[in-house]
Design brief:
Shape: globular
Number of domains: 2
Helix content: 40-55%
Radius of gyration: 22 Å
Oligomer: single chain
Strand content: 5-15%
CATH topology of the largest domain: Rossmann fold
Strand order of the largest sheet: 3-2-1-4-5-6-7
Number of strands: 13
Largest sheet: 7 strands, parallel
Length: about 375
C-alpha cells in the first residue's frame, strides 16, 4: 500500500520592504524545492510575492488584511466570517516563515518561525498599536506544533516570553537566498556596478532598512570621530528602505557635514547586491537588536570582512569570524571600524574564517532539516 503524499502549504506574504523576513522566506522556499518529490508543496502567497514553488495559491488582500476580525477573534474567540478562502486545498500542515494569525485560522497543524522579541526589549521603537498587535499575534506561537528560530538567543526568549516547552522548539540557521550564494561573480559586471553607483575604491557597506534599532546615527557619529581623531574619511554606502528613522539619519548626515562621505543608493536590484559586498572593504553591522543578521551570512559567503555589534545572537553567529563592538559606545565602534579599515591582514584572516562559518550552511542541508521538522510536527499533531 502506497503511503499518502503529505500536502504542505507554505505562507509567503512578507513584503520586500520587511527586509530580513522577506529574504528568510525566499531561502525557505528555495530549500523546500529540494523536497518537491517527497511532499506535495503549495506556496500560499500574496500578489506581490514571487512564485518559487511549482504549485501556488494566490490570496487576495481581502483575505489577509482583516485586522479587526483577527484581533477580535484572537481576543474573544469569536470568528467574524471566514478569513481563509474556500478554495484552499485540504493541507496536512502549514508552514509560516513569520508569526502571523493566518496559520492559526487554518485549523491545521502548523509550524511557525519566530524571528525576535524586539518589542519586549525596545518597546519605545513601536507605537502602542504595534505593541498590542504584536502581543496578540505572538500568542498564537503557543499553539504551533513546532516553533522554529535561528539562534539559541531567540529560543530562550520563546521560552521566557511565550512559555513554549523547550522540546517544541527547533534552532535552524537559514542560509541566504540562492541569488547570493550561487552567484558567479562577473569581473566585467563588477566594473560596471562600480561605475553605475559611482563607488569609491574603498568603502564600508551597511545594508539595512532605516528602522530605529538599526542604529545608523551612532555609526555616523563613530565615523565622524574617526575623521576627527585619525584624519581618515571612511566612505559609507547605505542601502535599505526608507523606514521611520530615515529622515533623522539624513538630517544627521547634514549636521555632521558628511554629505560627500555617506551615500544612500536607495533601492538596489537583487542581482547587484553581491557586487556591493564584493567591492566593499568591510560590512558594518551596528544594530542595537538582531536575532540573526542575514547580511552577515551574506558577507561570509561573498568574502567580505565583518565588523559587527555584539548584541543578542550576533556573538553566537559571528564567533571568531568578525570584529565585535558595543553599539551604544561610539568610541568602541570607531576603534573596531578603524582597525578593520586599516589592517589588510586582519581582513584576509576574517574572510577565511567567514567561509568556514558558512561552508555547511547550504540550501540542501537546510532542506534536510525542514523535511525532518515537517514529519516531527505531524507526529506531534497525532499525539
Amino acid at each position: 500500500m502506497e503511503s499518502k503524499i503529505i500536502k504542505v502549504g507554505v505562507l509567503s506574504i512578507a513584503d520586500r520592504s520587511s527586509g530580513g523576513v522577506y529574504q528568510y522566506t525566499l531561502s525557505l522556499l528555495e530549500a523546500l524545492k529540494y523536497l518537491e518529490d517527497n511532499f506535495e508543496l503549495f506556496q500560499i502567497r500574496n500578489e506581490r510575492f514571487p512564485k518559487i514553488l511549482k504549485q501556488d495559491l494566490v490570496i487576495r488582500n481581502r483575505y489577509i488584511i482583516l485586522k479587526l476580525k483577527r484581533i477580535i477573534h484572537a481576543l474573544t474567540g469569536v470568528k467574524l466570517g471566514s478569513l481563509v478562502p474556500k478554495s484552499i486545498p485540504n493541507f496536512d500542515i502549514i508552514i509560516s516563515p513569520v508569526i502571523r494569525l493566518l496559520p492559526y485560522h487554518f485549523k491545521k497543524p502548523y509550524i511557525v518561525t519566530i524571528h525576535d522579541f524586539q518589542h519586549e526589549y525596545y518597546p519605545e521603537f513601536f507605537t502602542l498599536k504595534e505593541r498590542i498587535i504584536r502581543k496578540i499575534i505572538y500568542r498564537t506561537g503557543k499553539y504551533a506544533n513546532l516553533v522554529v528560530c535561528e539562534s539559541q538567543f531567540v529560543k530562550k526568549d520563546i521560552i521566557k516570553f511565550l512559555g513554549v516547552d523547550e522540546e517544541k522548539i527547533r534552532v535552524i540557521p537559514s542560509p541566504p537566498p540562492s541569488y547570493l550564494i550561487n552567484i558567479k561573480i562577473d569581473e566585467k559586471k563588477m566594473i560596471e556596478i562600480k561605475k553605475l553607483y559611482n563607488l569609491p575604491d574603498k568603502y564600508l557597506f551597511y545594508p539595512a532598512n532605516f528602522w530605529f534599532h538599526k542604529n545608523h546615527i551612532k555609526l555616523l557619529e563613530a565615523l565622524f570621530l574617526i575623521k576627527r581623531r585619525y584624519g581618515e574619511e571612511i566612505p559609507l554606502i547605505l542601502v535599505g528602505s526608507k523606514q521611520n528613522n530615515f529622515d533623522n539619519v539624513m538630517k544627521k548626515i547634514r549636521e555632521l557635514g558628511m554629505e560627500s562621505q555617506v551615500k544612500y543608493l536607495g533601492y538596489v536590484p537583487d542581482d547587484d547586491m553581491p557586487y556591493l559586498y564584493k567591492l566593499s572593504t568591510a560590512l558594518v553591522m551596528p544594530t542595537l537588536f538582531e536575532s540573526v543578521s542575514l547580511p552577515i551570512w551574506e558577507a561570509f559567503y561573498l568574502g567580505c570582512p565583518v565588523v559587527s555589534s555584539n548584541v543578542c545572537a550576533l556573538p553566537e553567529q559571528v564567533r571568531n569570524a568578525g570584529l565585535l563592538f558595543d553599539p551604544q559606545n561610539i568610541q568602541d565602534i570607531a576603534k573596531k571600524v578603524y582597525r578593520i579599515w586599516t589592517d589588510e591582514d586582519l581582513r584576509k584572516e576574517l574572510v577565511k574564517k567567514g567561509y568556514e562559518r558558512v561552508k555547511n550552511l547550504t540550501l540542501e542541508n537546510y532542506a534536510k532539516h525542514w523535511e525532518k521538522i515537517i514529519k516531527e510536527a505531524l507526529e506531534k499533531a497525532k499525539s
